[in-house]
Write a structure and sequence with these properties.
Elements lengths: L5 E7 L3 H9 L6 E6 L4 H10 L3 E5 L5 H12 L4 E5 L3 E3 L3 H11 L3 E9 L13 E3 L6 E5 L3 H4 L11 H11 L3 E12 L10 H24 L1 H24 L3 H18 L12
Parallel strand pairs: 1-2, 1-4, 2-3, 6-9
Antiparallel strand pairs: 4-8, 5-9, 6-8, 7-9
Length: 279
C-alpha cells in the first residue's frame, strides 16, 4: 500500500473528541493535516506529542469548511488528498481500497466511499466503481493534478454546498467522479462539533443553509431565476419569524429570523459573514 501517495486533510471546529476517534482509525504511516478553526492550541500540543504523522494548523479565525480545506490541500505534497470530516471512522482497508482504485481508474478527479451509518450495509453483487455526478463531502478523494484547471473549493461558501459545488464543477469540466462500494467509511453526520450551545449551532446552520442555497442557485441558474424560486421561502421565513415571536416561542422565532436574514443577505450579494456566537 503506497501511503506516501496520499495526505488526509481534516477541518475541525470544537471537534477534539470526534477527531481523536477518527485518527485512531487512520494508519499511523499516513500523513495527516488538521486545520483547526476553534483556536484550540491545546489540541495542537496534544497531537504533536502523540502523533508523528500529523501536522496541526491553528487558524486565527473560524474560516469555514471550504477555505480551511483549501488551506490544507495547498500544503499537500502527495499525488492524492483525502478530505475527511472528523466524525468519520475508516474501515481497516479503506485507504488500501482507495489507493488500489486510484491506480486502476486513470481518468478520475474525485472518488467517494460507500456511505455507512451505524449498521453495516453492502452493495448487492456490485463491488465495482460506479460513475456518478456527485459524492458526499464527508470523504472526498482528490486526484490533485486534475484540479489545476478546475480549482478547489469555492471559498465564498462558509458552510453547506461547497462539496456539491465542487462536484458540479468537476462534471461541467468533463471530468469523472466515481463511487467506490468497496471503500467503507462510517459517518455520524452533523456530529463534528461538540459544544453545549445547540441553539446557537442551529441558528448558524439555518443562516448558512439559506445563504448557500441561494448563492449556489445564482451561480448556476442566474440571479432572476433564483430570486423567483426563493422569494416564497424568503416571505415564509419572515412570516414564521413574526408568528413565533407573537407566540413568544423565542427559539423558533430566532431560527426563522436567521433563515430570513441568511437568505436576504445572499440575495443582496453580501458575503457569508455570520459566525456562531460562542462564549
Amino acid at each position: 500500500m503506497f501511503l506516501n501517495e496520499i495526505t488526509i486533510v481534516i477541518t475541525t471546529f470544537f471537534s477534539e473528541k470526534k477527531l481523536i476517534k477518527c485518527l485512531k482509525s487512520i494508519n499511523g504511516k499516513c500523513k495527516v493535516i488538521v486545520i483547526e478553526n476553534s483556536k484550540n492550541n491545546e489540541l495542537k500540543k496534544k497531537l504533536n506529542e502523540n502523533y508523528k504523522n500529523i501536522e496541526c494548523i491553528v487558524l486565527k479565525e473560524n474560516s469555514g469548511f471550504a477555505k480551511s480545506n483549501n488551506i490544507g490541500i495547498k500544503m499537500v505534497k502527495t499525488k492524492y488528498a483525502l478530505i475527511l470530516n472528523p466524525d468519520t471512522i475508516l474501515a481497516k482497508d479503506a485507504l488500501h481500497n482507495f489507493l488500489t482504485c486510484a491506480s486502476q481508474i486513470k481518468d478520475f478527479s474525485l472518488l467517494g466511499p460507500y456511505f455507512q451509518t451505524g449498521k453495516e450495509k453492502k452493495f448487492e453483487k456490485n463491488h465495482y466503481p460506479i460513475s456518478v455526478n456527485s459524492i458526499k463531502g464527508f470523504a472526498m478523494f482528490l486526484n490533485l493534478k486534475k484540479f489545476n484547471n478546475i480549482g478547489f473549493f469555492d471559498e465564498n461558501f462558509f458552510l453547506y454546498f461547497e462539496d456539491i459545488d465542487l462536484c458540479k464543477r468537476v462534471i461541467l469540466s468533463g471530468n469523472k467522479i466515481y463511487l467506490l462500494p468497496n471503500v467503507i467509511i462510517n459517518h455520524e453526520g452533523a456530529k463534528s462539533v461538540n459544544f453545549k450551545d445547540d441553539e446557537e449551532l442551529e441558528v448558524n446552520r439555518n443562516w448558512h443553509w439559506m445563504w448557500s442555497s441561494f448563492y449556489y442557485s445564482k451561480k448556476y441558474k442566474g440571479f432572476f431565476k433564483s430570486l423567483i424560486f426563493f422569494s416564497p421561502k424568503l416571505f415564509m421565513s419572515l412570516f414564521k419569524f413574526i408568528f413565533f415571536k407573537i407566540l413568544r416561542k423565542n427559539n423558533k422565532s430566532k431560527i426563522y429570523q436567521h433563515r430570513f436574514l441568511g437568505l436576504l443577505n445572499s440575495i443582496k450579494g453580501n458575503k457569508s459573514f455570520y459566525r456562531p456566537k460562542i462564549n
